[in-house]
UniProtKB/TrEMBL annotation:
Belongs to the UPF0174 family. Belongs to the CBP3 family. InterPro entries: Ubiq_cyt_c_chap (IPR021150), Ubiqinol_cyt_c_chaperone_CPB3 (IPR007129), Ubq_cyt-c_CBP3-rel (IPR014569). It holds the Pfam family Ubiq_cyt_C_chap. It comes from the Bacteria. Residues 35-164 form the Ubiquinol-cytochrome c chaperone domain. It comes from Microvirga brassicacearum. This is Ubiquinol-cytochrome C chaperone.
Length: 177
């Protein structure tokens, strides 16, 4: 019985690897230098949120067990955000309040990006990304082109490709102005 505590959970390892690929893609310097996401704590949150949302959108269209993967991925995202807040020194009493605000921001962005991504509406997506990810009133067209290309590519990949060797997001530098 006690030895079961030390066994690797393949499902947990698979989700951790998928989330690690998402986090790595969200840290690509081209997102900050070429596509205009501010290299700040808020900008990093916006980038990892965008990449997580794109993967969740792809999982939504796949057959089971993709829905379970999406739930586990969402849990991994919020656990990472929680851990990051604690690493920044935010106290235990404040973390739940911040998490509630960040969860509302995440789901608000997912909703704001869904329509334009579904309609392949670059101007509308550029406006939403400019306001949220870049923090500007100006539309973020290069970032919108990147997100549309990533969305298209992720939706073309199957579950095995997403969970296996991993999907590679497009290179941000190729979407510059």
């Amino acid at each position: 019985m006690i030895f079961s505590l030390f066994r690797k959970d393949p499902r947990r390892a698979t989700i951790a690897a998928l989330y690690r690929r998402i986090a790595d893609a969200s840290r690509n310097p081209g997102l900050y230098g070429t596509l205009g996401i501010p290299d700040t704590v808020e900008g990093r949150f916006e980038s990892v949120s965008l990449h997580t949302i794109l993967v969740l959108r792809a999982l939504r269209d796949l057959p089971p067990p993709a829905d379970d993967v999406a739930k586990d991925l969402t849990d991994a995202f919020f656990q990472d955000i929680d851990a990051s807040l604690r690493e920044m020194g935010i106290g235990d009493t404040v973390v739940p309040k911040r998490m509630k605000k960040l969860a509302a921001a995440f789901y608000g962005r997912a909703h704001a990006y869904d329509g334009p991504l579904d309609a392949v509406d670059e101007p509308a997506l550029a406006t939403a990304l400019g306001r949220n990810a870049v923090g500007s009133d100006a539309p973020a067209h290069p970032l919108a082109r990147y997100a549309l290309a990533a969305d298209r590519s992720l939706k073309a990949a199957g579950l095995a490709a997403l969970l296996g060797e991993g999907h590679v997001f497009p290179e941000p530098d190729t979407f510059g102005a």
